[in-house]
Specification:
This protein has three domains: 57 residues, Arc Repressor Mutant, subunit A (Orthogonal Bundle), CATH 1.10.10; 127 residues, no CATH class; 55 residues, no CATH class. 53% of the residues lie in helices and 9% in strands. It has a five-stranded antiparallel sheet with strand order 4-3-2-1-5, with no helix packed on it. Helix 7 crosses helix 8. The radius of gyration is 29 Å and the shape is elongated. It starts with a helix and ends with a strand.
């Protein structure tokens, strides 16, 4: 579907714009298969020959109409991305708009339900140009975040393509454990799946994982009476405190060891640590 990339956009040819608008109305009302070039010419108020001068055939007109609508969607996504204050907000708004755009579109929703064989190839087996457009759009926005030091994905293009492919897949297959019909589900998807991939950074430059939660870590110190526990979040620290006599059982036959451990946070913030002294990574609250 090279029309998406190469055909003129709205405003460059007033007659072509009028024909495309008439075609969109015709397709939405009667479907693509039942619509003819005569019907579109009549609705646009031009001759059939004029339609063929702008568009070689009906397939070319269909591709142009879809291309115009996809470009319109890209412009709106771009606007919403710029309105968000964080990457999380921008991604959520992007997914929310994609759902509302497709489900409320006069042509796309009808095609997916009534004539899927006409639209699905443009988004699947022949969907390279559509995927390239969305990947490029997302990559340009992510690169701004990378340049500003707020994100550090392993590969910007790959991360952008994953987001684009995920969005297209979820739009085409509505049913499943992940649904885009609920905003809270979209927020959870972005927070738990996409943000870890983007490796966001906080103001101190620390990489934040899994929904911007700082990561606590323990340092094993063999034979030390106390084990220090540090958190990457600034100012959060604590310790695991031992009490009792670990050798009591060996000195008194039949007696059990009386050693115990408990978590003593320096201040609220870190999750409770396991009594085990093996190095572990835990999330901070």
């Amino acid at each position: 579907m090279t029309a998406i990339l190469h055909q003129p956009g709205a405003g460059e040819d007033a007659v072509a714009d009028r024909i495309a608008a008439a075609a969109l109305e015709q397709f939405a009302e009667f479907g693509i298969r039942r619509s003819t070039m005569d019907d579109i010419a009549r609705r646009a108020g031009v001759s059939k020959m004029t339609v063929f001068r702008r568009f070689t055939n009906k397939q070319g007109l269909v591709e142009d109409v879809i291309a115009r609508e996809l470009r319109r969607a890209l412009e709106e996504i771009d606007r919403r991305w710029g309105a968000g204050s964080t990457i999380e907000e921008r991604l959520v708004e992007g997914f929310v708009f994609a759902v509302s755009f497709v489900s409320g579109h006069p042509l796309f929703d009808k095609l997916l339900r009534a004539e899927p064989e006409l639209l699905l190839p443009l988004l699947t087996v022949d969907g390279g140009p559509v995927l390239a457009l969305y990947r490029t759009l997302i990559a340009e926005r992510l690169q701004v975040e990378v340049d500003a030091g707020r994100a550090a994905p392993a590969n910007v293009d790959q991360a952008s393509e994953v987001i684009a492919r995920l969005a297209i897949s979820l739009l085409l297959t509505r049913e499943g454990s992940i649904t885009l019909d609920d905003r809270s589900t979209i927020e959870a998807l972005v927070r738990d799946t996409l943000l870890p991939m983007l490796r966001l950074r906080d103001r101190t430059g620390t990489v934040q994982l899994a929904g911007n939660l700082p990561v606590c870590r323990t340092d094993r110190r063999p034979r030390a009476p106390r084990q220090e526990v540090r958190c990457r979040a600034p100012g959060v620290a604590g310790r695991v405190q031992r009490s009792g006599r670990p050798g009591a059982a060996s000195r008194r036959p039949g007696a059990a060891a009386t050693q115990s451990t408990r978590w003593v946070p320096a201040r609220p913030g870190c999750a409770r640590q396991s009594p085990s002294f093996e190095p572990k990574f835990r999330r901070c609250r």
